[in-house]
């Protein structure tokens, strides 16, 4: 499986890094982003390893999630041997704010 990041998910990753750098430190932010990227990379071997994302089940597109700390890496497994990362969401927020 090939892991592809959407533009939105990459934007969210940048925003998370910026907020964490300001609120904690650049080193903590780097480690968090590295952990999120590593979790996504594991999906190459285990594309169905994440849980079904219940807040997006109504879309019937097979959204799944991998949780890293307070964050969800939200993705879909596409038929053409691709895992598409569609969002990185701070789970401390209202789940209705999740956009994909």
Describe this structure in words.
The chain starts with a strand and ends in a 10-residue tail after the last strand. The protein is built from two helices and five strands; from the N terminus they run E-H-H-E-E-E-E. It has helices spanning 7-23, 26-42, and strands at residues 2-5, 51-52, 64-68, 71-78, 82-90. The chain is of the alpha+beta class. Strand 3 (64-68) and strand 4 form a beta hairpin. The chain has a single domain (2-97), classed as YaeB-like fold (2-Layer Sandwich), CATH 3.30.2310.
The biggest beta sheet is recorded as:
5 strands, mixed
Name of the CATH class:
Alpha Beta
What CATH calls the topology is YaeB-like fold
Helix content: 25-40%
Q: Tell me the fraction of residues in β-strands, as a range.
A: 25-35%
List the helices and strands and how they pair.
Layout: E1 2-5, H1 7-23, H2 26-42, E2 51-52, E3 64-68, E4 71-78, E5 82-90
Parallel strand pairs: 1-5
Antiparallel strand pairs: 2-3, 3-4, 4-5
Summarize the structure.
This protein has helices at residues 7-23, 26-42, and strands at 2-5, 51-52, 64-68, 71-78, 82-90.
Please supply descriptive tags for the structure shown above.
single chain, 100 residues, alpha+beta, YaeB-like fold, five-stranded mixed sheet, 2 helices
């Amino acid at each position: 499986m090939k892991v592809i990041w959407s533009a939105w998910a990459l934007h969210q990753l940048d925003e998370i890094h910026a907020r964490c750098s300001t609120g904690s430190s650049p080193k903590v932010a780097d480690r968090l982003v590295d952990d999120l990227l590593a979790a996504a990379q594991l999906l190459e071997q285990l594309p169905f390893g994440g849980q079904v994302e219940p807040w997006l089940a109504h879309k019937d597109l097979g959204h799944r999630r991998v949780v890293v700390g307070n964050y969800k890496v939200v993705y879909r497994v596409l038929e053409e041997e691709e895992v598409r990362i569609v969002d990185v969401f701070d789970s401390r927020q209202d789940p209705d704010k999740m956009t994909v």
